[in-house]
Design goal:
Number of domains: 1
CATH class: Mainly Beta
Strand order of the largest sheet: 1-2-3-6-7-8-9-10
Largest sheet: 8 strands, antiparallel, barrel
Order of helices and strands: HEEEEEEEEEEH
Shape: elongated
CATH architecture: Beta Barrel
Structural class: alpha+beta
Helix content: 10-25%
Number of helices: 2
Distance between the termini: 78 Å
Length: about 220
């Protein structure tokens, strides 16, 4: 009976995520890339509550696409989250380690040179209920800054994230955490066309000459 009660909510969360995924635009796959506009980012994060740290270490892996308008994230909170509370002699356990996933739509607010700001909203699911949220399916919101490092060799994002059930069921303190991630070029996903490095004139000429020699065609 207990296993049945746990399985039913899990199926409900998966159904919600599948429904949200169906609302996203289709991603075109190229012959040399599984996702031409996809960008994989990995990094590190930490949890907090009311601007006080709670000791949770977060390992994020995110994929965004369509010029970063959409994001799918996988998060592992690796340590217990503890909150100092005057009502308790010892730090209060707010959450144990768990896995979480979110799917969000993002909007760019401002852009100044290599830096841009954005907000996002979507759904999140996690493997455990705790004092932060009594439900495993929550709403997900984010506020972040996207930046390019000098030389345009890497792109990073610093994002503040909040998951909560909007008071549908208590307790609902909300899961707050920040992540710092950087783009990972794995070859399985594409790089935005605007960020591709153009070939130099001499290299392009030599390449064209090589192709012409093999095909028996002379350069104009």
């Amino acid at each position: 009976m207990e296993r049945t009660r746990r399985t039913a909510p899990s199926l409900t969360w998966l159904a919600w995520l599948a429904l949200a995924a169906c609302t996203l635009p289709p991603v075109r796959a190229g012959a040399q890339s599984l996702c031409e506009s996809c960008e994989v980012q990995v990094g590190l994060g930490g949890t907090y509550h009311f601007w006080g740290t709670t000791g949770g270490v977060v390992l994020p892996v995110t994929v965004n696409w369509n010029d970063s308008r959409y994001e799918l994230g996988l998060f592992r909170v690796t340590t217990q989250q503890l909150l100092d509370d005057h009502a308790y002699r010892e730090a209060r356990v707010m959450a144990d380690p768990y896995w979480g996933m979110s799917l969000s739509r993002r909007w760019r607010l401002i852009e100044r040179g290599p830096v841009s700001g954005f907000v996002g909203f979507g759904l999140a699911a996690k493997t455990e209920c705790d004092q932060l949220s009594a439900t495993r399916l929550d709403f997900a919101s984010q506020l972040g800054m996207r930046f390019r490092l000098p030389g345009d060799r890497a792109t990073g994002e610093l994002t503040l994230r909040h998951w909560s059930n909007a008071g549908i069921r208590l307790p609902n303190h909300g899961q707050d955490f920040a992540t710092l991630t950087f783009r990972l070029n794995s070859g399985l996903v594409g790089v935005p066309r605007a960020e591709m490095i153009p070939l130099g004139p001499s290299f392009a000429l030599a390449s064209a000459a090589g192709h012409g020699g093999r095909d028996g065609d002379a350069l104009p």
